[in-house]
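ugh ok fine here u go
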Amino acid sequence: MSSGVLRREGGPIGLLYASLGAIIGSGWLFGPLNAAREAGPLSLGSWGIGALSILLLGSVFAELGPLAPRSGAIVHLSHVGNGPLLGKVWGWILFFSYVSVPPVEVMAILAYANNYLPGYVDPVSGLLTARGFVAAILLLGAVTATNFLVIRLVLLVNSAATWWKLLVPLATIFLLLHLSFHPENLSVSAPGGTLEGMFAAVGSAGVIFSFFGFRQAVDLAGETRSPGRNLPLAVIGSVAVGSLLYLGLQAAFLLAVDPKDLARGGWSHLSFSGVTGPFAALAVSLGALWWGAVLYADALVSPGGTAFIYLTSASRIAMAQAETGSAPRFLGAVNARGVPWTGLLFSWGVGSLFFFPFPSWHRLVAYISSVTVLSYCLGPVILLQLRRAMPHAPRPFRLRGAGFFAPLAFVVSNWIVFWAGFETLRVTVLALAVLVGLYLSGRLLSPKRRSPAALFRELGIAHSWWVLPYFAGMWTLLFLGPQKLGGTGTIPFFADMGLVAIGSLFVLRMALSATVPVSETVRIMESLAERPPAAP
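structure:
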């Protein structure tokens, strides 16, 4: 294994752009149209709800990140209060939630490129062709190769791309409002344009997916010299800027659509000839052909930049898994340039596999939503566990009113799961069950065999049992929930949301009662506070 170390060259602006660059990806190119189809003018409320939800969760992670100043910080923190098994499994959930994003951004690039370089994507099914599979793997490899730069240059490249990714959407907002302004569109409702549709669009129209990048700065905690100052600025700042941008884009889209297009079936039937690029198609329909070309160019830069920074973080998550003993040690290798090179190659290999079962943008986004919303849920639990175990420990950033906001964040994270729908939860729970089953089988059949009772004690099952009623309860409530979310329709939408909130508070209480002993929590946190030696 290389003796290289990570370089702490990430400043506050670089970390801010790491999160913001991940937030502004292919989501802005698809989300406003999908949200308008789901909720009509109430889609503005969908973005507001999504922004407030993510800002609340971002505040939780802003306190947690500086407490574990290592790259892949959330992986390390997942081991703190819930026992080894839950920590290991949650760490892999985090890895899969990151490593699956670069493939979806690469597929977005190929989908847009297919307009002028046909042959990569089938125009009818939207699936990758044989040539498309090869191009996707090679393009993902090119993004991986760029990540072999030292972290200072990685963040510099991402910062430059982020400026482009900010300016193009901002210019799009002003251009569309200048060319076409129809406030009467706001009185045209969609079939789902009720309050239920507004909430459902948060999970199903790509709203939450568009905000997923806020944790990038947290995962680079080991590569900044002042995490207590830089991480809260990056996390909260990126969510705030991204929220304003997405609200502006949604408003511009709603107001710029020609009322004649809405007269043919309303928002739910709105479509453009260039459906892979609705903003570009809208600009062309308004006579701005030159800006349509700019937007198709941005369809290369925005997804490419997001794929770039997500691979950066995925490699750090793989490295953290190796450091906690949840993955082979070779994944923790760092070269002389301060790059976790084996983690990068591993992320490229695993990411390439996602092209085969999910060969389209929409299919892979559905998977990402299911696994990522789950990874959010543990943050509020960890924060409260640490507040109870180490109430007076110094915290570079302290979330005020954590006794109220952390439980609220846990409820909101489960609402996000609820809004994503029953199918999303079903896929996630089944994947988690397979992962746990394989891990336990491997431990029971290993040369160092242990009895099931001894193995359960070693893995800390007594501290993670609460996950079973948690998933069972969410499964039941979504199965009996509204048909709009894939349920049977037995429980009305808002009544089910209320039951999810009540159930979340009960689960949170169970999780806090099952935490590891305080002495063990303190030991783990002290080991995390001992940061690895920095590169000069």
